Amino acid sequence: MKKLVRIAALASVLALAAACQGYTLVKGGSPVEVGNAMKVSPERSWSKLTSGKYEIWTVDGPILQQILFASGVEDGEKLFPTDAQTPKTLPEFKKGMTELEITELYRDTLVQLGGTQFEIQEIAPKTIAGKQGFRFEFTFATKEGLQKNGIAEAVLAEDKLYFVAYTGAKLHYYPKNLPDAEQVMGSVEIL
């Protein structure tokens, strides 16, 4: 069977890290703690995989659409969880990074995991959890050519990075759950 593209490796890494527990249900309608560092209040239910400060939420499967949470990433840590199969050269977060550098950190990580054609559409300031952060929109493709759209929001607090990205297949899945993803992203609180 053909191996999944490396861009989907994040889901595999989380699945391996959470092999004993697998997906769990995030019930909509009440606040949920994410990675012991953030809280969100989803209106709808999602399925999630957890690996420490990293979580992936999905409705239809992580290749079709997902929300990635990286909660309280510290200096020298990677933006995605890693395991023995993850490239050792993934870039690391450095405290003091600018908005553009954090955007490039995300782009470079996706590219090393197999993403192609990454393009930033827009970067804009945004207040997140009462702090000055930013949001960017982007597009990319998997090695097999699946076109994806995405939005990401990031904020720095006490030299830690709080990062949330929603990605989905450009046709159908991205627009289908975009309102739900934006609702979740809009409810982020830092603990």
Automatic annotation (TrEMBL):
| Signal peptide segment | 1-17
Keywords (A to Z) from UniProt: Signal
Q: What is this protein called?
A: Lipoprotein
Species in which this protein is naturally found: Hwanghaeella grinnelliae
